[in-house]
Fold each of these.
Amino acid sequence: SLFSYSVVEEEVWCCRVAPMMDWTDNHFRTLARLLSKHAWLYTEMVVAETIVHQKDNLSNTPLFSKLVEATWRACQKRLHLQTATASMKLTSICWKAMSAISSNCDVPVSVKCRIGVDDHDSYSDLCDFIYTVASSSPTRHFIIHARKALLNGLSPADNRKIPPLKYEYYFALLRDFPGLKFTLNGGITCMNQVNAARKQGANRVMIGRAAYNSPWITLGQVDAAVYGTPHSGLSRRQVLEKYQVYGDAVLGIDGPNKPRIRQIVKPLLNLFHSEPGNGLWKRKADTALRHCSSIQSFLEETLDALPDAVLDSTVATTLPDSTATFANVDGSLVAPFGQKQEHLVACS
Ligand SMILES: Cc1cc2nc3c(=O)[nH]c(=O)nc-3n(C[C@H](O)[C@H](O)[C@H](O)COP(=O)(O)O)c2cc1C
């Protein structure tokens, strides 16, 4: 089983950035925090067995000693633990794991799951899963990735594209389990979509790939569009200045090339997504990464590829489009699925 953590939740309306293996590392989260003060950030998923195994060997593994300590501190500070279930077919493993996690800490836990797996994909299969996990363990929060998973034949990337999104399952869960919390995840790409989902009744959303692939537009707008607070007011040049201080401080901190300059620069490479100069900047970045030995020299060598207007502008504040409706990819409107399921309220 895997878990990640983020700060504890109390507020109702919030926007989370999804845990993404190899992507939402410390470097990306540092950049994300410069772009948004309020978006909820999750660590990458961490394999629990690795932590347990490393626990006996902490002195040789500074990274994991930090991780174990951080996890312990997470519990002390009432951070929020989240597990992802590999297969919803394994409902009993899920609720047993959640009970075990909860019995060792007193923080809220959540399960992140798909709406189904293979042919276990009816709304009533999903309800059975939620009902069993919620009534057999302390889990009260489910993050619903609104696609099913096809376990055979599809790569993880295709599993995020090919099974159709069924947002109506999420809205039906909100209706049928009023005592539980549900976060909507899957295919959300912009703030208008977030606000349209909210108008439709969603109260928690999670954004994955869009936050990583176009962080300036997505994360840069979260504070104003979702939380109603001013955005940081930083230009990308200023964001990069701050990031450079972080990057050069952590470069090689865990030993030679740990982390490498390439790992630290990686989240920056999407910062100018679809802006003039982006292509040239990326080509220069590619060359610079072969010989630069600091983030400062990397930026000095590459940033002249980008126009000042791009580097010095602050994020555009787009007013929410109040007419936007939350629709499926095929344009069909999202209505709760099927009849209200009265008996399910029991586990609230
Ligand atoms: C590169 C990558 C790695 C991911 N790793 C995980 C993971 O380890 N655990 C998990 O629960 N979801 C993982 N996801 C899924 C995301 O958390 C999210 O559910 C999915 O991308 C759908 O949201 P989106 O359409 O907004 O991207 C990953 C997604 C991507 C793109």
Amino acid sequence: MQRGDHGLSLPDGVRIGLLGGSFDPPHAGHVHLSREALKRFGLARVIWLVSPGNPLKAEGPAPLSERLAAARALTGHPRIEVSDIEARLGTRYTADTIAALQALYPRVAFTWLMGADNLVQFHRWDRWREIAHRVPMGILARPGSRMAALNAKASRCLAEARLPAHAARALPSAEAPAWCFLNMPMSPLSSTALRTARAGG
Ligand SMILES: Nc1ncnc2c1ncn2[C@@H]1O[C@H](COP(=O)(O)OP(=O)(O)OP(=O)(O)O)[C@@H](O)[C@H]1O
Ligand SMILES: O=C(O)c1ccc[n+]([C@@H]2O[C@H](COP(=O)([O-])O)[C@@H](O)[C@H]2O)c1
């Protein structure tokens, strides 16, 4: 067990899914993705990494404290945890966050989780190949993004590292690069739609 002043207590050997996001606002689609990932990848816990700000998004999100509070109020699941560790570590780029977590918790098996829409533009992330070589990646279907994700630049570059869906439970202990795409009953929810609805659009 290793503890720090980062608010995370992770036992050695545990299989942890990391779901990075703006969560602006969080919604049931995030919970749905997390529950599927827990079950189908055989994870002990999913940690929501609430981002101080997506480096690719020009517009700043709502204040971090608001998004954290909303995420904590929403999850209601004993194995979904909400973390502000990126703010505590001072990291914004995923490659830096993962490197820092692996340095802090060298015996924890981290799996990076994302919806299919994020795989479509994953090759635009800073040091995306490094991320893929650091952690296995679990990708979950999202309406409208399935084919685009499977044809994306990163998917093509990492084609040999793809595990079939029936091997999903082996993903968290697979040596990176390794990724697995899972179909699931899809949730049409998105933060963009919720923000638009709130603004009365
Ligand atoms: N309905 C959903 N189904 C599957 N994955 C989802 C869904 N909603 C969000 N995700 C995934 O959760 C992660 C965090 O998402 P994020 O906080 O950006 O929410 P979002 O709804 O995608 O927001 P926005 O509309 O502002 O892009 C991303 O990997 C995203 O792909
Ligand atoms: O590191 C990067 O270059 C990078 C670029 C775009 C997005 N991300 C991460 O991807 C996650 C999803 O972001 P978002 O805003 O789509 O919810 C979140 O953890 C971001 O920090 C990371």
